[in-house]
Amino acid sequence: MSATVSIPTILRTHTGGEKQVKADGSTLQEVIADLEANHPGIKDRLVTDGALHRFVNVYVNDEDVRFAGGLDAQVPDGGTVTILPAVAGGR
Amino acid sequence: MLVIRADLVEEMVAHARRDHPREACGQLLGPEDTDRPERYVPMTNADDAEARGSDYRFDSREQFEVYKQATENDEETVVVFHSHTRVPRRPLTDSGLPEAYPSVKDIEYMGLQPGVHFAIVALTGPDAEPDLRSFLLDAEGRVVEDEVQVVERYMLSHTGADDVPDKG
Q1: ipTM entry
Q2: Would you call A84 and B98 a contact, using CB atoms and an 8 Å cutoff?
């Protein structure tokens, strides 16, 4: 069960500058664990207190995982996981 | 320095006026690695604090659609834009007016997008004179003002044969 993960600029320090990496897992949680095994430090940038960090948006194929089970979201074999920085702020 | 076409500034300011007193947000896309904004994409403000009209957040699904399209076109986000319409939570002056300066929350999120310009338009009212400023974070995470140069058109480096005018 392998997925292609798109890495945003801010996290490419963990992937040696790679924009896309492969990771194994059938849920987002497993994919992130496999990412961490190969790119140490990346998990802390994505997950805090057992949930996705508010600074990132994660999409499996075309769906935002916040609407699809969060870390338990299913990742189909050959699927894509896209990580984007959340964009927010205000006065 | 942020060099930006006047028509793109007009689009951002018009969006800020339309959404006042809520904060407006959007992004300017341009060809990868050029630092040249070419088109404005207004974004839906999905912030929970909608009723207070004092914060902004890109709608995450819309953000993904724009990202996908941009990637297909070899474009990237050059500028993230939002408006300030209220007195800051931690004002820098005692003017009692909105400030075109990043808030503490703005700075937190700016750190996620190194190299991206963050443009802010402060508007004291829907018809007020806009104050546009742009900022970046340096390598140490400090806010650096980014001088805004508004131009009618970009002076592109010469790419074609001498007798063929450059596009743009």
Answers
A1: 0.93
A2: no
